[in-house]
Write a structure and sequence with these properties.
Layout: H1 2-7, E1 13-16, H2 26-35, H3 58-72, E2 77-81, H4 83-95, E3 106-107, E4 112-113, E5 118-120, E6 127-129, E7 135-141, H5 146-150, H6 154-157, E8 162-163, E9 167-174, E10 191-192, E11 197-202, H7 216-220, H8 222-230, H9 250-272
Parallel strand pairs: 1-2, 2-7, 7-9, 8-10, 9-11
Antiparallel strand pairs: 3-4, 5-6
Helix pairs in contact: 3-4, 8-9
């Protein structure tokens, strides 16, 4: 991690919270910082918050991603919980052209839409539209179809488990018998529409939907911190046990941290590679 920080190439991570006030992502942001991620890459440049509301428009969020990519040189990662997971997927469809013919660039510092729908690609130097940009890593946690019905989000019901090509890597986390999300005993899997690499992770039964972002304790404990840092998807090592060891929410915390590190490295490699003209 120290090499990546020294290289100065760190993608922003946008954490999108659920629809209810208690469902925020602040603890998860604190977890990422305690694991070693730079805090400034989690904070909103306008107000400093680390947990973003999920009821702002997907067109605005897509334009914001474009501004970050053009300005900072790396595409942000997206992680959403509950309603926030739906917004992550909606943003991917927005970039895919499902809802609008063009996407204005949105300046998150000034809080305004710019009068253009193109950016200068920092990798190629070419002018390109916002539409069609790809997110390297995106994740949805405990996101279900039932709340889409209650909230009248009809245009997302058929899309919610189908991931478009505007994500390179996507992981969907589901809880069996999640009453709030409307998930059954065998959660419906996420699938790729085309080229996206999609993984499905079923969390332990009994995982609390509301408290799932609460993960800071995992990074502040030496035992769980070390286990998470060494974890890989291929690892069969059981979660650590012992007096005072709290492993609540360790499965998705470890999985997301692994993916974050992976895409952090990839962003550094891309940024440090020779420029393409």
């Amino acid at each position: 991690m120290s090499r990546l920080r020294a290289a100065g190439v760190t993608p922003r991570i946008i954490l999108l919270q659920g629809s209810l006030a208690p469902l925020n992502m602040e603890s998860f942001a604190d977890f990422l910082v305690a694991m070693g991620y730079p805090a400034q890459r989690l904070r909103d440049p306008r107000d400093g918050r680390t947990s973003q509301p999920s009821f702002e428009g997907s067109q605005r969020w897509a334009g914001t991603l474009a501004w970050y990519y053009e300005t900072e040189g790396t595409m942000p990662m997206l992680v959403g919980h509950s309603q926030g997971g739906m917004m992550v997927i909606r943003i991917l469809y927005e970039l895919d052209g499902a809802f609008h013919d063009a996407i204005p660039v949105w300046d998150p510092v000034a809080g305004v839409a710019l009068s253009r729908t193109t950016i200068r690609d920092p990798r190629t130097g070419e002018t390109r539209p916002v539409q069609g940009l790809k997110v390297g890593y995106a994740a949805a946690i405990a996101t279900g179809k039932l709340p889409r019905v209650f909230l009248g989000q009809w245009d997302m019901i058929s899309k919610l488990r189908r991931i478009p090509d505007t994500a390179e890597d996507f992981t969907g986390f589901s809880i069996p018998w999640d009453v709030i999300a409307g998930t059954l005993g065998e959660p419906e899997p996420y699938v790729a529409v085309g080229t996206a690499r999609v993984r499905n992770v079923t969390l332990p039964a009994g995982t609390g939907h509301v408290r799932i972002p609460e993960t800071l304790h995992l990074a502040t404990s030496e035992v769980t911190h070390r286990w998470i840092d060494e974890w890989t998807p291929e690892s069969a090592a059981p979660a650590p046990e012992g007096p005072g060891v709290d492993t609540t929410n360790i499965v998705h915390a470890a999985d997301i941290w692994f993916s974050v590190k992976q895409h952090w490295c990839q962003s550094a490699q891309q940024a440090l590679a020779p420029e393409v003209h």
